[in-house]
Amino acid sequence: ELISINAFAKALKIKPDEFLVQLGQLGFEGVTLDSLMAGETAALVAQEYGYEPTVESGDSQDLKPRPPPEDASKLPSRPPIVTIMGHVDHGKTTILDYLRKSSVAAQEHGGITQHIGAFSVRLSSGKPITFLDTPGHAAFLTMRQRGANITDIVVLVVAADDSVKPQTLEALKHARAAKVPIIVAINKIDKEGARIDAVKHDLAQAEVEIEDFGGDVQVVCVSGKTGQGMDDLEENILTLSEILDHRSELDGPAEGWILESSLKPTGKVATVVVTRGTLRPGDYVAAGLTWAKIRQLRNEAGADINEAPPGTPVEILGWKDLPAAGDQVIQSPNEDRAKTAVSYREGLREREKDAAEYETITEARRVQQEQRAREKAANEGRKRGTGTGTGAGAGVEQDLPDEEDGTKMVNFVVKGDVHGSVEAVCAAIQEVGSHEVRPRVLRSATGPITESDVEHAATSRSVIVNFATTTPGHVRRMAETQGVRILDHTIIYHLIDDVKANLSSYLAPEV
Ligand code: GDP
C-alpha cells in the first residue's frame, strides 16, 4: 500500500508545503508532493503526529474464498481435474480427442461435443474425471502464474517411438514445481518403432520414480489412435485420485476458476471449473474485474444444465465483461456484493499500477545516476591518463559494484515462476550479506529471463537469479556473450547458498 505525500498531508490535516519541510527534518530527502510513501513508513510518520494508525485494507468489500474445511474427510468426493502435458507431436491432442468422444455429455447428445476448455469423462464404474482440454504448458503456466493451481493430476504423454524429449523434461519440471503428481502415458504403442523399455529407462534417467523401478509413479501404455490402454489410463487416474482423496462441499458459496472466455453469438461466455459448492442459473458470481448473474449453465455438448457441482466444467452465460483465464470465480449472495467486490478490485488494480510505475521510474533514475557516476569516474581516470581511452565506461565494467556507506553492493535481478516465489526469493536474498558486502535487488518479476533482463543486468552489472523458470536458449547465449551470470535454482536454500557464495567472491583481498 502506497500513499502520496499530498494525500498524506491532507489526511494529517497539515499544509502540504509545511509537511514537506517537516518531512525533510525527519530525514526524508528529495520528497515532493507526488512522491509515494510505503504504508508502513507512513504509519510511523503518522505516529510522530500523534496518530494511532490502523491499517485499513478495505478487504471486507472483496469477495474471498471461504477458509478450507476443518475436516474434509467427511465431505463428498469430487472428480479429479487432469491436465495432459508432453512433448510436441507425442499425442496429447489425439488422446484428448479420444477421451472427448467418450465424454459424459457426448454420450448423452449423440457424440457431439464442442471445445469449451474442459470436459468430463465417466468410466463404466460410474466415476467421472474432468480433463482440461488445452494441451501444452502455456495454459498450465498461465494458470499457475495467476495463482490458480487447479490441476490435481498431470498425465505426462511420452511417445514410445521418440522417448523423453526437452518438453517432456520441461513438463516434468512444471509439474514438480506445482507439486502435482504425475501419471506417465507411454503413447503410440501401436507403432512399429515403439520401444517401451527404452522410454522407461529414459524416464528413470530423468529421475521419474516409476513403478517398474520401485517408485510410485504409474506408467500406462496407450495408443490414442486405437484406444488401446485408454481404459487403463482412466482407471489409473481414478486410483490415484482415490489416494489423493479429493473432496469438496456441495453447498455454501461456490468457488471455481475461469479456464477460458470468449465472445459468442449468444453473448459473453466463460468456461469455469467449479471446485467448491454448486452453481445454478440465477446465481451471482464475481471473477477478476467482472461479474455475472448466471443466465445459463451449459455443458460441453452445449446442453443446458441446472446445476454444476465441484469438478464440473461449465460454460457460464451472463457476464458483464469477459473474465480472464485464471481468474478465480466466487459466488456472491447478491448483485450488490458482486458489484462492490469488482469496484474494490478495480481500485486496488489502479493503485498497483501506480506503484509499479513509481518503481520503474525510480529504478530508471537510479540506473541513470549510476551510469553517470561511472562515466564521470571514467572521464576522470582518462584525465589522469590512466583510462583505457576507448570510451566512457570502458574498463569500469570489471570494477566491483559501487559502495554504499563503505559496504560493497552486489546487484541482482530476480525472476521466478510465480509472484509468490519471486517475493520469497527477493526477501531471502535481502537477508544475506554483511557489513562488507550486501546484495541489492534492482529488478524482480515473474516469468522467464528475457533479453531485456540480460541487457539490464549487463548495464547494471547484476547477477540474474532464476527460480524455476526455463531460460530460452537465445537468452542464455546472450547472457554468455555479455558476461552476465545466471544462477538457476528450484530450491530456495540452494539458491541462497549460491547467492552467498557469489557475494563472498566479491570479498577477494584487494591488491
Ligand atoms: P500433440 O502435439 O502432442 O498434440 O500430438 P498429436 O496428438 O497432434 O499427434 C501427433 C501425431 O502423432 C499425429 O499425426 C497423430 O495422428 C499421431 N499419433 C498420436 N497418437 C498416436 C498413436 O497412439 N499411434 C499412432 N500411430 N500415431 C499417433
TrEMBL record:
<protein>
    <submittedName>
        <fullName>Uncharacterized protein</fullName>
    </submittedName>
</protein>
